[in-house]
Give the backbone structure.
Amino acid sequence: MPDIQIMPSILAADFGRLAEGCLRAEEAGADQIHVDVMDGVFVPNISFGPEAVKASAAVVSIPQNVHLMITQPQNYIQTFVDAGADTIQIHVESKCDIQEVLAEIRGLGKRPAITINPETPVESLFPCLDNRWVDEVLIMSVHPGFGGQKYIAAVEEKIAVIRRRADWVDIAIDGGIDGETVGPAAAAGANLFVAGSYLYKQADMAAAITNLRETAQDNFCRAL
Ligand code: DX5
Ligand code: ZN
């Protein structure tokens, strides 16, 4: 079984106490911190940039999983690496040379990842998989831009297609993950789970992370 990991999204943390929000996730047993970077152009919201990654990396020792929802990721890779990013996810829909940017991330010693919006065909990811340009694929199960949206179950078919094609790749799912949706996503083949609003609204985040992890382990399936 591939490693099952839980990645709290600090988009749902209190921005006035960001460091505390990162520490809270680490102390609750999170495997990575998921940082949602939005530029107000690629998505209709503005969140935070490299300084947030730097602030998070300064207080926790778990990896920084950085999701770039920006139009020109090619201009910011070095900046996010310097800030402390460990995995960098670029969107297959972004206006850049995907292969070149993923190679740059790998060349800087970090984990390249590709992410895909709900309406984009899964075939657009095949070159990344077949040529092993990525270590991780992030499937969006909401339209990117905001936390707290409803999980789109139809993307599970995309997870299954990727899992069948590339059993070695980490498949992350992002958007609307909670105690109900984590099971079906794992059953389709996802092994990394981003969760924002569900985890940060819990009184006991550690129990919720344990619950997500155990439900994912119980349901994980290599190929549907
Ligand atoms: C949405 C972001 C997600 C978001 C998930 O654009 O990519 O990472 O924080 O939030 P929830 O878990 O609340 O759907
Ligand atoms: Zn995200």
About this structure: The radius of gyration is 16 Å. The pocket of zinc ion (ligand 2) is lined by residues 9, 34, 36, 67, 174, 194 (CB under 6 Å).
